[in-house]
Amino acid sequence: MAGACLELAENGHVELCLSEEILAEVDDVLKRPEIQSRFPSLTAVVVAEFIEALRGFGQLYPEPEKHFSYPRDSKDEPYLNLAIQAQAEFLVSRDKDILDLRQSLDAAAVEFRQKFAQIRIMEPLEFLRTMRADAGK
Fold first, then answer.
1. Do 122 and 2 meet the contact criterion of CB atoms below 8 Å apart?
2. Each residue of 9-68: pLDDT tens digit?
3. CA-based, 20 to 30 A from 61: which of 14, 21, 51, 108?
4. For strand 59-60 and strand 90-92, is the pairing parallel, antiparallel, or unpaired?
5. Distance (Å, rounded) from C-alpha 4 to C-alpha 24?
6. Angle (deg, nearest 10), helices 2-10 and 44-57
7. Is 126 exposed, middle or buried (0-12, 13-18, 19+ CB in 10 A)?
8. CATH number of residue 64's parent domain
9. Left if phi > 0, otherwise alpha if psi is -120 to 50, otherwise beta: which for 127?
10. Is the Cβ–Cβ distance between 42 and 36 less than 8 Å?
11. What is the torsional sign of CA 77, 84, 92, 45?
């Protein structure tokens, strides 16, 4: 699913919004021992090539201002603030804390939905279905 989402960006159907902070986290996550043990072909060279490919078809934004604070998981703030700054229509994630912003009744989630209603938070499969439905119109 993630590959299909990336393919949409690579083919220019959607814009993949990136920042240096997010690219650094992707690099870090892909180099973690638990990921490396699950995917032995994910060498440092492959990770570097992947990051470079993202730079090639993604849109690199300057580090976003802090538009939104998320006390539940401050590590998610770079993604949320980039989506806000880029005026993104979609924020695609598998992260439970980000996904919970869609329906949680805690104050931060309610605030996010009120202030940034234009951002539709979706899981990858949901996003792909939405893109296919929109393409059929």
1. no
2. 999 999 999 999 999 999 999 999 999 999 999 999 999 999 999 999 999 999 999 999
3. 108
4. unpaired
5. 22
6. 50
7. middle
8. 3.40.50
9. alpha
10. yes
11. negative
d(C-alpha 76, C-alpha 84), whole Å:
13
User: Which two three-digit tokens encode residue 57?
Assistant: 């078809």
| Residue 52 structural domain | 2-135
User: Each residue of 54-106: pLDDT tens digit?
Assistant: 999 999 999 999 999 999 999 999 999 999 999 999 999 999 999 999 999 99
Going by C-alpha positions, the residue among 39, 43, 34 that lies closest to residue 2 is: 39
Report how many domains make up the chain. Answer: 1
Cβ atoms < 10 Å from Cβ of 29? 11
